[in-house]
Amino acid sequence: MPKxxxxxxxxxxxxxxxxxxxxxxxxxxxxxxxxxxxSREMFLQELRQEEGTAASLVAEIGGRVVGYIxxxxxxxxxxxxxxxxxxxxxRRGLARxxxxxxxxxxxxxxxxxxxxxxxxxxxxAIQLYEGLDFRKVAIRKAYYAxxxxxxxxxxKVLETQAGPASEPGSAVSAPPAPDGSRGEAII
Length: 187
Ligand SMILES: CC(C)(COP(=O)(O)OP(=O)(O)OC[C@H]1O[C@@H](n2cnc3c(N)ncnc32)[C@H](O)[C@@H]1OP(=O)(O)O)[C@@H](O)C(=O)NCCC(=O)NCCS
What we know:
alpha+beta, 10 strands, disordered N terminus, two-stranded antiparallel sheet, Aminopeptidase, binds coenzyme A
């Protein structure tokens, strides 16, 4: 049987594994391309919290870290706090693969929803999330300190084997931004 297009794009398949401090060189190289990159200390702080509410994965291809995702478990919610793929490995389904793995783990822990904030003008990421059934639920005004850009809050109801988890009745109460969120509008 011919391979599906998605399978071909991920050939060789990435290895997904927990991020460790030893991964930070390639991770920081990827971050360096962004307008407001996370520092080494920010990553270390997340890694120190693992086993509790924070967790992470890297995607490795041919022994090289080409993507990563970090998230928090907060009550019945999985909140994505960072996601990136090396510019040379994009559009191969890696971000989707990382997110799917987080959703799988979240469902195993009985989480009902996934949430995240994304820059208002980050079209690539918004299309990625919409393709995974996230919907826009709120705007946090001037959320990003570097350029004052608004954040879109996006939410996905995690399907369980018994069907979708019950729809949350109110706007998501996502964790605060490191620089302090400055107002939220429901959309
Ligand atoms: C956003 C990002 C993580 C996507 O990673 P990726 O591995 O290239 O994404 P995928 O290959 O899994 O893409 C899945 C889908 O997302 C959408 N998508 C991804 N990149 C896109 C782009 N540049 N333009 C439009 N749609 C895009 C497409 O629908 C794509 O499916 P398709 O390739 O079948 O059309 C990557 O571009 C990145 O690291 N950007 C910088 C960091 C960032 O913005 N992180 C998100 C913070 S909220």
